[in-house]
Design brief:
The chain is an alpha+beta fold. The chain has two domains: about 5-45 and about 215-250; about 75-195, no CATH class. Helix content is about 35%, strand content about 25%. The chain is built from five helices and twelve strands. The protein has helices at about 15-50, 70, 180-185, 215-240, 245-250, and strands at about 5, 10, 55-60, 75-85, 90-95, 100-110, 115-125, 145-150, 165, 170-175, 195, 240-245. Strand 3, helix 2 and strand 4 (about 75-85) form a beta-alpha-beta unit. It is elongated.
Length: about 250
Amino acid sequence: MKINIGKRQFCPGLITSLIALIVFSLFISLGFWQLDRAAQKRILFADFEARQAGKALQLSDETINTFEKDDLLWRPVDIRGEFLEQFQILLDNRVEQGQAGYFVYTPFILDGGKHVVLVNRGWLKAGDDRQVAPPLESTASHMILNGVIKSEPKTGMLLKNAKPEQLGANIYRVQNINIDELEQLTKTKLMPYIMRLSPESEGGYFRQWQPPGSGVAMHMGYAFQWFAFAVALLIIYLLLNFKKTEQDKADE
C-alpha cells in the first residue's frame, strides 16, 4: 500500500504494520488496565475510610457471633483476653525498609474462653540463620487489644505443598496464612478472619500498615508509562514508513 501525502509517500509493510498494531493495542490495553486498577483502589480506600470512621466495636464471647464477617472487615475493634503463646506463627518473606523478616501471628482467646481470633502482631526482623527463630516477646496474661478486622492476607504465588516448618517448641514458619490449615496446626477453632493490631496497641511488634486502596498514584504512573510507549511506537512507525517520492528525490 502506497499513499502520497504532499511530497511524501506513506508505504508501510504488511508484516511490520501487523506487529505494530498488535504491540500498540497491547500498550493501550495495559494503560487502561492500570487506570481500572487505580479506580478500584479509590473505591477500596473510600470504603476503608468510611468503616474506620465508626466507633470501635467491642468483640466479646457474647457479641462476636452477632457480626457477619463482611460487616466486620476494616472495622476498628477492641478485644479482651490473652494470647495463646504456645502457638506462634511466622509468615515468611515479609520485607520492611529493605530488611527481610516475618509477620508474627498469635491466636488470642477472648474472655470467657469460647472464641479465638488470630492476631497479626506486626513485623519482626529475621536473624542471619533461617533455622533459628527470632526472639519473641512474652506478654501479660490479660490484655486489651485494638485493631482492625481483615481477611486472610494474599501472599502471591506460593510453592506447591509448602508445609509449615517448626523452628521451636511453639514456633512455626509458614508461607501463607490459611485459617483452615492453622486450625489443624494449632488444634484450635479460629474465627474466619484476622485481627491486625493497630500501631498504638500493646502486645505487638513493628507496625507501619498500608491502608487498603493505597497505591493509586503508582497505578496512574504506570498507565501514563504504557500510553507513552504507545505514542512513541506510533511516532516511530510513522517516521519509518513516510518516505520521499521519486519526484521529490529527483528535484533535490
